[in-house]
Amino acid sequence: MTLSISLHLLASAPHAGKHHPRLLPTLGTEGVIQLHRQLVARVLNLPPLGFSERIFWIEDGPDELLEALAEDNDWMVVGQPVGDLGERMRRIAALGLSENDAVVLIGQHCPMLDADYLSAACEALDQHQAVLGPTEDGRYALLGLRRVDPRLFESMPWGSDQVLARTCERLQELEWPHGLLPRLWVLDDPEHLPRLGRLGIKLGTG
C-alpha cells in the first residue's frame, strides 16, 4: 500500500434472538449464535495485509472468545461509540482519518469479503476519495474513505435497499470520485446457506 490505511470491523457480540431472524427457523437459536460467531471470527482471521492498524469495534460486548481471537491476531478491541449506525460509522471514520490517509469500514455478514477484496479496496483508494463494496440487496458491506463528511451518514435508510444508491448520490453531490467493487451477497436468508458450503465454510466449525 502507498497510503496509510486503517481497517475497522464493526460487529456485535452474538446474542440469542437478535441476529439473522430469518435463519432462526432453520438453524435454531444456538445455531444462529454459532454462525454469527463464525462469521466474525472469519474476518478476525484474515491476514493483516499491511494495514496501519486493525480495530474490532464490538457492540453488545464483551465476548471473551471473539475478543481473545482478535487480540491473538493483533486487532485492537474497542466498544462501539453511541448513536445510530450512521453516527457510529462517522465517528469511527473520523477517528481513523485523524492518523491515517484512509480508512476501510467493514461488517461480518458477507462471507465473500476476503483478503483479495480488501486489497482491491485499498488499491481503489489510491485513485478515489471513496470506495464501496455493494451487496446484492442494495446496501454495501465495505466503505473506504480518504475524507469524511456527515452527509454520507445522515438521514440514511439503513437496512433498506436504498442505502447504496443514496450513498452514491451523496458522493456525487460532494463531487468525490468514488469506485465500486464487485457485488457481494449478504448471509441473511436460509436460501443463502448452501453458498457457505460452496465457499468451504461448514456450519458448526470454527
UniProtKB/TrEMBL annotation:
<dbReference type="InterPro" id="IPR029044">
    <property type="entry name" value="Nucleotide-diphossugar_trans"/>
</dbReference>
<dbReference type="Pfam" id="PF09837">
    <property type="entry name" value="DUF2064"/>
</dbReference>
<dbReference type="InterPro" id="IPR018641">
    <property type="entry name" value="Trfase_1_rSAM/seldom-assoc"/>
</dbReference>
<protein>
    <recommendedName>
        <fullName>MobA-like NTP transferase domain-containing protein</fullName>
    </recommendedName>
</protein>
